[in-house]
Amino acid sequence: MAEGDSGTPRHACLLAQQAAEKKIKAVLIRFQIAFPKTHDLDRLRSLLPADIAGRLETAALAELTEWAVESMYPGDWPEMNIQDAQRAVQTAEFLCETLSPYAD
How many other C-beta atoms can be found within 10 angstroms of the C-beta atom of residue 86? Predict the structure, then answer.
């Protein structure tokens, strides 16, 4: 997300989290692994086969999970900024690229 984009950092953070969540769930579906209704990316990652889950150990999934809660549900949350959005998008891109061979 570049300075001056028309989207808000909050929206970018939400979409990054959703992209990561959907990609993990796509891999779980491909491997016929049942999963709960949750936005918790670390919990979903833990359900992946170990060799695949291990490829995501460096990803900041807990931070992405926070964006799902803070951007979709009412609360007294801190406002997201452009740096938050950039980190969220980078994490989601890493996750999606890493999992693409297993979900495409």
Answer: 17
Question: For residue 60, which of 44, 42, 78, 72 has the smallest C-alpha distance?
Answer: 42
Lookup: tokens for 68: 């799902």
Model confidence pTM above 0.70: yes
Alpha carbon 97 to its chain centroid, in Å, reads 12
Question: What is the Cα–Cα distance from 8 to 51, expressed in whole angstroms?
Answer: 36
Question: How far, in Å, CA of 32 to CA of 80, rounded?
Answer: 36
Q: Which residues contact 12 (CB under 8 A, 6 or more apart)?
A: 1, 5, 80, 85, 88, 89
Each residue's pLDDT tens digit, 27-65: 999 999 999 999 999 999 999 999 999 999 888 898 888
